[in-house]
Specification:
ten-stranded mixed β-sheet, alpha/beta, extended, 43 strands, 6 helices, about 35% strand, 15-stranded mixed β-sheet, about 550 residues
Length: about 550
């Protein structure tokens, strides 16, 4: 049966036909394809690709799959006025390809789009997943929505198994309030009153220090086809055997109690109770003290005396012209007030007060004192004409404090942060952050050796050139000439190696540094600010800023 271009397609079982410019389209329901037949017509209009596509759209075949090459071939025949037929469009249903991973922990979908046929729907996708036994709780419905909206997919993960939650090992909870690693996580923004920070904690014999919680069994997982995945149970861990001064409670094996009276220090899976020596003061009555453990001093460290301890030292008073050495952290609620004994041959102040800590140092102030810490140095009020050295950082930025450094030298490996540097009196003040180049002497040796190699190369080259002169051949034979060439080559290679080493050292010196000097308030003249090997002489008063090294110079930002 034949229809005009204006007639709509009839029943799918029937044959749909239309004639436009001598082209007749026929839909075959058996092959789900559209056949275009050409009939010669003297009055046929010119046929092109847009016209043919429009004809397909008008006849209800616009969504069918088409091939431009097939359609172009038909157009060529039509323009030549020839008879013939060709299949130019196909109706295709969407196709779904499912892949379940071998471990059954993921399902991937590749979907070919529909061309006038069955489209992808949620019901279809869920039906297919259900047929494959995929668990509802594993299906990613957001991805299904994405596939439905796009009408196609390329290896999208539409379902994923639930991994088991493995059990947690025994946990250890410290029960002594304030018992923690001193100064851990300190920040200059800490809003804490200095006098209340890191108070010296003392526990009595029998006091509960730590509780151990049992390991958990974990939560089973589930693969995409509903098979249970067993979790790995946590391990039962023992208390740290190195927790000296603490024992396991006989009434409760999950509790650690103090075996002696002392200062508790948190360690991994345990608490170490450091027997603590308490004295009123370090003076003529006590004499010098060298103690294996921690020490608490209620008063002052008097001039001329010394206090040494392998553990923490907590001084509630002040340190005068004395020596204090702590194996771990040192806290001085008061300050350090020393004295200078003149200057040495390098015109450096000789300071009477020495304060050293294997951990961190906290003090209210430092005046004419030497402070060295393997960790950080934190001063509340001021530092005057003192020598501070920290392998960590130096902080003078406590809220509500002066936080100034005036005179002396302050050095830190990482950062120096203060409220102000120097004074109106232009007191020479030196601060330096970062690392000083310890290979400077090596660089000087390499430079001298490189120069020596070049000089020897020049002499040998001249001697070799002279040997080529007929007048010199008698004094320099062939064997000596070969030795001169070998020696010259050896010096040239050595000079090349030295130059390569010097280039690497220079590149290392020019590398980016994380060291920084931060000043929140005023920076006065006659302040020397160093970052690594670079140094800046501040000659005018400035507003607070940060100083870093760029190349071989210190710059502010």
């Amino acid at each position: 049966m034949s229809t005009s271009a204006a007639d709509p397609p009839t029943d799918a079982a029937a044959v749909n036909q239309s004639t436009v410019s001598a082209v007749m389209l026929t839909f075959d329901p058996d092959t789900q394809s559209v056949l275009a037949t050409l009939a010669p017509a003297p009055t046929a209009q010119k046929l092109d690709l847009p016209t043919l596509q429009s004809l397909l759209q008008e006849q209800g075949y616009g969504e069918f799959y088409t091939s431009d090459s097939d359609m172009q071939e038909l157009i060529t025949l039509a323009l030549q006025g020839k008879e013939g037929s060709a299949t130019i469009a196909h109706r295709r249903d969407a196709e779904l390809e499912w892949v379940v991973q071998p471990d059954k922990m993921a399902v991937y979908l590749t979907a070919m789009p529909a061309y006038g046929g069955k489209k992808i729907t949620r019901e279809w996708l869920l039906e297919e997943l259900q047929e494959r036994g995929i668990q509802e709780k594993c299906i990613d419905h957001a991805v299904l929505d994405q596939v439905i909206k796009a009408g196609q997919a390329e290896r999208l993960c539409v379902a994923r198994g639930i991994e088991p939650e493995h059990g947690v090992d025994s946990q250890f909870e410290g029960l002594v309030e304030g018992c923690k690693k001193l100064l851990e996580g300190y920040s200059e923004e800490d809003q804490v009153d200095f006098h209340q920070v890191q108070d010296f904690i003392v526990v009595e014999k029998g006091e509960i220090l730590m509780r151990r919680t049992p390991p958990t069994l974990g939560v089973p997982g589930l693969n995409v086809v509903g098979e249970t995945l067993p979790p790995e149970p946590g391990c039962e861990l023992e208390f740290n055997p190195d927790a000296d001064g603490a024992i396991i409670d006989t009434d409760n094996p999950d509790q650690l109690i103090a075996a002696v009276k002392g200062h508790p220090i948190l360690i991994d899976k345990g608490v170490f109770v450091d027997p603590t020596l308490r004295v009123d003061a370090i003076d003529i009555a006590s004499g010098n003290i060298d103690f294996d453990g921690s020490v608490e001093v209620k008063g002052d460290i008097t001039s001329g005396f010394s206090l040494k301890a392998t553990g923490d030292i907590f001084i509630r008073g002040m340190v005068e012209k004395a020596t204090v050495i702590a194996g771990r952290n040192l806290t001085i609620v008061g300050g350090v007030a020393g004295e200078d004994l003149g200057r040495d041959q390098n015109k450096e102040l000789i300071l009477k007060a020495h304060v050293v800590a294997g951990g961190n140092i906290r003090a209210k102030y430092a005046n004419l004192a030497y402070l060295h810490a393997a960790g950080d140095i934190i001063i509340r009020e001021f530092v005057m004409q003192s020598h501070l050295s920290a392998k960590g950082s130096v902080y003078l930025t406590q809220p509500g404090s002066k936080g100034c450094i005036i005179g002396g030298k302050t050095m830190a490996r990482n950062e120096i942060a203060v409220n102000s540097l120097g004074s109106d009196a232009n007191v020479p003040t030196v601060v330096r952050a970062g690392r000083i180049n310890c290979k400077r002497k090596l660089e000087e040796q390499l430079r001298a050796e490189h120069k020596n190699c070049l000089e020897n190369c020049e002499k040998l080259a001249k001697l070799l050139k002279a040997s080529e002169n007929p007048a010199q051949k008698a004094s320099i034979n062939n064997d000596m000439s070969r030795k001169i060439k070998a020696t010259l080559q050896s010096y040239e290679q050595k000079a090349k190696r030295i130059k390569s080493i010097r280039v690497r050292l220079n590149a290392r010196n020019q590398a980016k540094s994380d060291a920084i000097v931060t000043v929140k308030g005023a920076i006065y003249p006659n302040v020397y600010i160093g970052v690594d090997d670079a140094i800046l002489n501040n000659r005018a008063r400035k507003v607070g800023c940060s100083f870093v090294r760029e190349g071989s110079e210190v710059v502010s930002r």
